[in-house]
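Quick start: what a row looks like.
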Amino acid sequence: MAQKKKIELTRLQGIIAVASFSSGVIIASVCLFFIPPLGEIASSAISIVSELLVLCGAILGVKASYDVKFRKFEAELRDVIENEKKTNA
């Protein structure tokens, strides 16, 4: 049961990572290149927001990727240990 929750959490982190990365790129490209500001919004404020969203997406994406690879490694290790127990028994 705990393993299923970890998989769901990793999947959720992956979705959040993709969403925040995409929104950061969209905000940066739309606000900096296509739409002139209507008021006193400095382009640095927009770029800070988009960079933070991209950073959030990158951090969560790396963690989700690491969790998946670690889970695969753990399963392979468990299989090797079970095979050794079978051959030694």
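That is the whole record. Helices lie at 2-34, 43-88. The radius of gyration is 21 Å.
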